[in-house]
Design goal:
305 residues; alpha+beta; 5-stranded mixed sheet; 5 helices; 21% helix; 23% strand
Amino acid sequence: MLRDIRRAEADVLAQRDAVIAARPDILLLLDFDYDLDGLALSGFADLLAAAGHPMPHRFAAPPNTGLATALDLDGDGRRGGPGDAQGWGRFAGSGGMALLSRFPLETGRIRDHTAMLWRDLPGARLPQFPDGAPFPSAQTQAIQRLASVAAWEMPVLTPDGALLLLAWHATPPAFDGPEGRNRQRNADEVAFWRLRLNGALGPPPQAPLVLIGNANLDPEAGNGARDEIRALLNHPALQDPQPIGIGPDGTASPATASWPDDGPGTLRVDYLLPSAGLRALEAGMIWPSDAATHALVWTDIAWPP
């Protein structure tokens, strides 16, 4: 146990050092456990401030990960497991999202799509049994949310005008059965933003904006509906700065994540996509350590727009 605690502390310090190296104005944290009083987020912000990079503005909200339901959402014949939460998680708040910023976050104007039902997405790829019946049941699909973690539209008030962050974290398109529940959900979590930008889900978000998060989907390799992430990367409202970094294997690559042991290998799954009217000056990534699964992805944007 002591060894595990020390390893966790080392991971946090490595992540802190990566953030200090990047010195971001705005930072999206993923797989960051949510707690009601924001103690973990405040603690990490204090580490950054003590290292010379204060980010006083912060936001977190309860994610779908670990949000218990009374139903068998994953179809394994049991209730109460991590797969029966709205998003996979062993406890409420597990692996959530959080924002830190040097500039004020206009939390009163956030559009939070976390509670949107999967079935309400136009063209939703709801999983089915071979006979066409809803998987695992019509009752579960009536309450199943689309976002596996969260989906936010957060205005950030910079000294030279507002910037809109579109933030999300999609489920991996794996770890399911022949019904392809996670694969279909991952595809629809990515498709959600394409539809938002197209105006199919109400008035589209207005530029200047940045779409930021983990799609858990590579346009060229790995599992999942790769056409969906390609469509997002090629959307006329966005641009792709295509960051390159030196990965844990020592080679230059666009891959932002690495699962070397019996996993899919190195994949590009994390994205930071400015709106087309912004000028991206530079983009890259920083790997916190050789053992890190994900890199910190960054983009410098010319501002004001």
